[in-house]
From TrEMBL:
InterPro entries: AraC_XylS_family_regulators (IPR050204), Homeodomain-like_sf (IPR009057), HTH-like (IPR037923), HTH_AraC (IPR018060), HTH_AraC-typ_CS (IPR018062), RmlC-like_jellyroll (IPR014710). This is HTH araC/xylS-type domain-containing protein. Residues 155-251 form the HTH araC/xylS-type domain. SMART domains: HTH_ARAC.
Length: 251
């Protein structure tokens, strides 16, 4: 999806726990349908393709689709969804993917529902934004499948580096947090971010230094110390290499 969702209409967001005897054989859809599994087990079928249903599996169907689904009556499906109309197609191919962050998925679903039911302009706008984000999550899951718990752990370590770049991080510590060897962690990190953990940390420090120098009024010496540099000239060289300006020029 290379453009924002050009939403025209949307139905009220809905949660439903499928009845034990439930099955679904859809008539040709007249609009788009967002369909997200939050709990339970089942199976989905469309145009000869089958997908096991479990928490995190989400689909965006397009007009004309005729999906079919069943579930385990002892592990009943809990589904969140809504119909919507948009300019162009909002449905990926294949129609479904597995969203790895199920907690975020649930937050978006609940926020969409609560916002829409406020029945005021701001609530409607928030619900539309949640729908746009949910559709984007499905597209991302379709086009970037197979992310693992290790990928998420490496992502989390990168977030921590950006949040606290002045800390004295070591690759051994990072690798231990991800339950990987140093070599394994470095390979995974480079694959995900295009640079080594050490280079990523330097960039995070320079990004934060730029913010401190231009927004906080801190001196170059104080900024360098706050970010773990004991050698101010070395900090200044790294800063200029990455920004094209010396730290003193930022004041």
């Amino acid at each position: 999806m290379t453009h924002r969702l050009q939403l025209e209409t949307m139905s009220p967001p809905t949660f439903w726990r499928c009845e034990p005897s439930w099955s679904w054989t859809s008539r040709p859809l007249g609009d788009h349908l967002l369909w997200c599994v939050l709990d339970g087990r089942g199976e989905l079928e469309l145009d000869g393709r089958r997908q096991e249903l479990r928490p995190g599996v989400c689909a965006v169907f397009r007009p004309g689709d005729e999906p079919r689904a069943t579930h385990d009556p002892h592990r009943r499906l809990l589904v969140f969804g809504m119909h919507f109309e948009t300019a162009g197609t909002a449905a990926p191919d294949p129609r479904w993917g597995e969203v790895p962050d199920r907690e975020f998925l649930g937050v978006l679903a609940r926020t969409s529902d609560a916002s829409y039911r406020r029945a005021d302009p701001l609530g409607r706008h928030q619900a539309e934004l949640c729908l746009e984000q949910l559709v984007a999550l499905v597209w991302d899951a379709v086009h970037r499948p197979g992310r693992t718990a290790t990928d998420s752990a490496v992502d989390e370590i990168a977030r921590q580096l950006r949040q606290d770049p002045g800390r004295e991080w070591t690759v051994s510590e990072m690798a231990g947090r991800a339950a990987l060897s140093r070599a394994q962690f470095t390979r995974r990190f480079v694959k995900q971010f295009g640079m080594s953990p050490a280079q990523y940390l330097i960039q995070a420090r320079i990004d934060r230094a730029h913010q401190l120098l231009t927004e906080s009024g801190m001196t170059v010496t104080a900024t360098a110390a706050a970010l773990g540099y004991t050698d101010v000239p070395y900090f200044s060289r790294q800063y200029k290499q990455r920004t094209g300006r010396s730290p003193s020029q930022e004041h």
